[in-house]
Amino acid sequence: MNRRALINWLSGILALLFMAGVSAAPRGEVVVVLSQDTDAYREVVRAMRAELTRQNRADLPVRVLTLNEFQSQYGQIVGQRPVLLVSVGTQAARELADRRPPVPVLHTLLPRQTWQSLARAPGQASSAIFLDQPIDRQLLLLKHALPGRTNLGVILGPASAGQRHELMAAARRQGFQLQIEAIDQPAALLPALNRVVEDSQVLVSVADPMVFGPSTVHHILLTTYRYRVPVLGLSRAYVEAGALLAVYSTPEHIGRQLGELVSRMAAGRWVLPAPQYPKYYDVATNPRVAASLNLRLERESVLLMKLEAAEGQR
Amino acid sequence: MNVQFSPSTSARPCLLALSIAVTILAPANLQAADPVPATEDLFLNQVPPVLSATRLQQPLAEAPASITVIDRKMIDASGAVDIPDLFRLVPGMQVAHISGNRTAISYHGLGEAYARRMQVLVDGRSVYSPFFGGVDWADLPLAIEDIDRIEVIRGPNGPAYGANSFLAVINIITRHPAQDQGADIKITRGSRGTEKLFARVGASSGDFTYRASVGYREDQGFSAYRDAKKVPLATFRGEQRLNGRDTLDIQFGYAGGTFEDGISGSLTDPARDRYTVSHYQQLRWRRTLNPTDEVSLNYYHNYYRSTDNYVYSTLSVSEGFHTDRHNLEFQHNFQAATDKRVVWGAETRLDRVRGQTWFGTGDWIETKLYRLFGNLEWRYRPEWILNAGLMYEYNSITQGDFSPRLALNHHVAPGHTIRASATRAYRTPSTLEHRPDFALRFPNGSVVNQFFLARNPLLPEQMTAYEIGYFGEFPGAHLIVDAKIFREEVRRYITDTRYLPTADVYQYFVNDGATDSNGAEIQLRWRPWPRTQLIYSHGYAHQRGAAVSESDPTASQSTTGFTPVHTRSLLAIQELPSNFNVSAAYYKLSNFRFGGGDPTGDFNTLDMRVAWKWRRGGGTRGEIALIGQHLTGDYFTFEREAPFDKRFFLNLSLGFR
User: Fold this and answer.
1) Min distance B139 CA to chain A CA atoms (Å)
2) Across the interface, which of B36, B40, B51 has its CB nearest the CB of A210?
3) How far is it, in rounded angstroms, from Cα B135 to Cα B129?
């Protein structure tokens, strides 16, 4: 028995003992576990609370814990039978998944592929709000922002290799040609990048640290720019660094969606919703890069409106 | 026998190599087996600015000058075998082949065998010679294959491009190492004994990305001359990223040359070989402060040596020379307000030239230069952009001068821009103009024959240029139009004339001439069909003025014949099915004469290229191209003795990515 399993087991025993000793269990809480105690993660909670207030559920008890607090108080927390455990970020998601608590778990603020890789016990109720955008939404944005640019390039790394078929299917559905290069080591990035830009009119970013990590982003942005190929980035930060545009969700967007889900679950019987992509999002563009590439882009607000309208029609 | 399982001495290197290999391979295998998963950090973290304002090319519609861009596609399609061939695509530009191993380039005429009125930069490194003020294109350490694009700023632009930015600026930008990862090989063979080899490898290791290129060029020149050449070259460019905001660009290169010179059987200009060595080192540090602000420090050193020893009658002559340039430049770009961008900087340069026969002394002759420059780009309304620039230059030959520049761009409608500009620029005389003492001397130092001698101090040449331009984009028609009308006034024109009063006749340089050029230029880029591209340029210029005669200081000559009235070029590129590519470049120029040469008369010429590309899995690609040059018959660009005949070249390229 490894150490973690032993701890789980012991805490389970402790929880049972604790529960036995408590005559009336407190009213079910929503327990939120933050991967880190920093602004981005706190913002999810803040936005969730704001949404709960808007939905007249400000009285819903919500307890916010850092990962450390959660780890040290695990037995006690589970013993209080919370109605829902919410993880914010990958680290918290891993911790929750590994502990297999007997409580429904909703993971938020993590990429979809990371959620898919989480350990899942049979019978464990778990769902998620992803942080990345559905590929269809990204393609729709390209359709509206850069009409006529239908040859897209994608570089996949080991963490994103599994998305190949899904990407190709979505591209086919929406009338795009996709050139995919797959790499399995960092040294392969530049050659792959040189190949992919030759025939592509836009490079689509995929969340993969080997491809779009902090040590590679300058290669991606500079090389594509030299070939005058614009980049669809992952976030506003990428756009500010030199990507042409992005559709992205902020912690605030995710928190708001979380608030809605929690409110709806509270109205029912705490049944988890299906795993889902962000409902709220924003569009970022880099007008300097657009001008330099001789591209005419509409304003961010106009593109956002068009994208929302197009998504609504689907 | 004592058998031990310890490595024998001879096996040790093998084991060492193996252990190194294991150490190197192991992490890679680990990474391949266990991918680092994506986390929210990819979406939430800050990203250091990469395409900062200074790394972005300014849209042509917002540039304060008329610019011709020759991109990689045009370079390939033009069928150019050598770099100077490319400049024929620029409206108003002339390329004169003085011999098989010397090419002179000028804009709006006013050229000589040693054309010297342009700034030429390679990645921000000024390569015009401190000796004569022009560029030795034949042994420039730069392979045409390594060029990413060339921007030709048509007109003076001192504040932005520095000293000698007089008639025009040629700004050559080489390919970034990240663009050429892998290996490339190119072999060219063709007429006049042309053999060209090029090989390049590019790789990266951690935050260091680099490429190394080697090349070799050999040909027989013109049939009328002894002008064969053999030029090997090697260059290196590497970029080290120090952290998220600092990068270091390291470049160095070498070219050697063996050039035939002289005339067989001549007593005064005997047949011989001239040898040259050229090398450079460059280090550029850039720090990105934020998406709009950047500082950079650029140091480079150029060295050039020409060895040319022969016997003149019975005298041993050494006509060689050395040149040396050290340059340090600091630049700071920043956003002063939401509507104002500023670039300012300072530069210091030491040019040194040495050549006993040319200067009458074996010592280095130094020219020091200091520059302070600034430019304000003020977008005071979204559709109005004002560029105001000023440069102060102080040099040890002509002292100090201010070069101002003012340009106003107005977007009259989306895609349509009108530009007006006025610029003042100066050109400092080269060392050869400033203090020549070119003579044949007896071993005791007394002069046998004086060819050039300085007489009186020279002033810098002065240029005042006015232009009104239009830049239009017609996306529906896939057409881009760039047109301008201009007036250029050159004063204190420097030319050589003959000193007659003594029996000992020699040439000297003098500020004696004034000439005005008026005209119009247009460039069209049109893509009538998706696989067809037409790039047309037409320059019209009327040069009017007078300069002192080359043979009589009391007589003057008209400058009108120095400049062709019409300069036309058409590059047509057609992509065909099955990876075939056909292109044709047609040039038509009216009569002009470079100083020292013959009037060319009106001429036209046609180059063509047919290429077939293939690609294999695993990143292997190749191309076979057949190039025909000068297909419409004889013409010459400098001396009538050296006409071009039809030339054909076959080249094979292989790439491994």
Assistant:
1) 27
2) B36
3) 6
pLDDT means per 10 residues in chain A (314 residues)?
Answer: 58 50 57 95 97 94 95 92 95 92 94 86 86 96 95 95 94 95 91 90 94 89 93 95 96 97 92 95 95 91 96 78
Judge if A36 and A157 occupy the same domain. no
Other C-beta atoms closer than 10 Å to the C-beta of B79 total 24
Tokens (6 digits) for A288: 């300097």
In order of A152, B347, B373, the CA distances from B370 in angstroms are 49, 6, 10
The single-letter code of the amino acid at B251 is Q
Tell me: do A122 and A231 sit in the same domain.
no
Residue B29 has pLDDT above 80, yes or no: no
Query: Taking Cα atoms as reference points, which of B173, B229, B171, B233 lies closest to residue B200?
Result: B233
Q: Is A119 on the interface with B (CB under 8 A)?
A: no
CB–CB of A183/A206 below 8 Å? no
Summarize chain A as % helix, strand, coil (round to 5). 50, 15, 35
Interface of A with B in 41-80 (CB under 8 A): none
Residue whose pair of structure tokens reads 């993971």 in the numeric block: A107
How would you class B400 by CB atoms within 10 Å of its CB: exposed for 0-12, middle for 13-18, buried for 19 or more?
exposed
CA-CA distance, A66 to A35, in Å (whole number)? 7
Residues of A in contact with B182 (CB under 8 A): 191, 194
Q: Are residues A7 and A41 in the same domain?
A: yes
Burial class (CB in 10 A: 0-12, 13-18, 19+), A69: middle
Chain A residues lying within 8 Å of B57, measured CB to CB: 292
Please give the backbone phi and psi of residue B7, each rounded to the nearest 5 degrees, phi first.
Answer: -65, 135
Q: H or E stretch including A132?
A: none
- A212 and B42 in contact by Cβ < 8 A? yes
B49 in Cβ contact with A242 (< 8 Å)? yes
Domain assignment present for residue A276? The answer is no
The backbone torsions φ and ψ at residue B580, rounded to the nearest 5 degrees and listed phi first, read: -90, 150
A247 inside 8 A of chain B by CB: no
Task: With residue B119 as reference, give the H or E element that holds it.
Answer: strand B118-122
CATH of domain B60-656: 2.40.170.20
The dihedrals phi and psi of B130, each to the nearest 5 degrees, come to -65, -15
**Nearest-angstrom CA–CA distance, B191 and B160:** 41
- List CB contacts (< 8 A) between B53 and chain A: 288
Q: Do B597 and B639 form a contact (C-beta atoms < 8 A)?
A: yes
pLDDT at position B604 is: 96
CB < 8 Å to A191, chain B: 181-182, 619, 657
Q: Does B578 touch chain A (CB under 8 A)?
A: no
Does residue A293 share a domain with residue A157?
Answer: yes
**Could you give the CA distance from residue A13 to residue B642 in angstroms, rounded to a whole number?**
100
Chain centre distance of CA B590: 25
User: Per-residue DSSP letters for B563-598?
Assistant: S-SEEEEEEEEEEETTTEEEEEEEEEE-----BTS-
Tell me how many domains chain A contains. Answer: 2
CA distance B584 to B572: 5
pTM listed for this prediction: 0.87
CB-based contacts of B428, cutoff 8 Å, min separation 6: B163, B164, B367, B369, B393, B395, B397, B398, B460
- Give the SS3 label for residue B477: helix
Asked whether residue A163 falls in the same domain as residue A60, the answer is: no
Q: Tokens in use for B512? A: 């004696």
Q: Does B28 touch chain A if contact means CB atoms closer than 8 Å?
A: yes
pLDDT tens digits for range B146-203:
999 999 999 998 888 888 899 999 999 999 999 999 999 999 999 999 999 999 999 9
Q: Supply the range of the domain harboring residue A22.
A: 3-131+253-267
Strands A62-66 and A30-34: parallel
Q: Position B62: which residue type?
A: E
